[in-house]
């Protein structure tokens, strides 16, 4: 097998791993969104400083996970473009 084909297979493995990471992160995001929704509701109902702090923290967690998912997506898409260019050369 050629070196280019080997590289394409390695890229496919990396792409698959990134897809799995994206799926896991998306599932975690759903959980974080539920927690954030609950925390915001508690903060709105109680207007207690601790509840408001919890709501800010969970909102930050959601934002961080959304950014993480976006980074994973960009990395995966970059590898897919690289793989596609490599396959055109085969």
Describe this structure in words.
This protein has 90 residues and is mostly helical. The relative contact order is 0.17. The termini are close together. The chain is rod-shaped. Helices cover 94% and strands 0% of the residues. The chain has one domain (3-89). The longest helix is centred in the first third of the chain and has 44 residues, at 3-46. The chain contains 2 helices and no strands. The protein has helices spanning 3-46, 49-89.
Write the layout of secondary structure elements.
Blueprint: H1 3-46, H2 49-89
Helix pairs in contact: 1-2
Summary keywords:
mainly alpha; 90 residues; 2 helices
Task: Give a quick summary of the entry.
The chain has 90 residues and is mostly helical. It is 94% helix and 0% strand.
Instruction: Tell me about the largest β-sheet.
Output: none
Which ranges are low-confidence, i.e. pLDDT below 50, for 5 or more consecutive residues? none
Mean pLDDT: 96
- The quaternary structure here is single chain
- Would you list the SSEs in sequence order as H and E? HH
In total, how many beta strands?
0
C-alpha-based Rg, rounded: 20 Å
Give the amount of beta strand, in percent. Answer: under 5%
Count the DSSP helices.
Answer: 2
Distance between the termini: 11 Å
State the helical fraction. Answer: over 70%
Report the principal-axis shape. Answer: rod-shaped
Q: How many distinct domains? A: 1
User: Which structural class matches the secondary elements?
Assistant: mainly alpha
């Amino acid at each position: 097998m050629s070196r280019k084909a080997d590289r394409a297979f390695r890229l496919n493995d990396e792409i698959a791993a990134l897809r799995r990471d994206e799926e896991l992160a998306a599932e975690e995001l759903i959980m974080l969104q539920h927690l954030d929704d609950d925390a915001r509701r508690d903060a709105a109902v109680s207007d207690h400083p601790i509840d408001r702090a919890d709501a800010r923290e969970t909102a930050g967690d959601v934002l961080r996970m959304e950014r993480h998912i976006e980074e994973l997506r960009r990395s995966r898409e970059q590898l897919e473009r690289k793989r596609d260019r490599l396959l055109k050369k085969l």
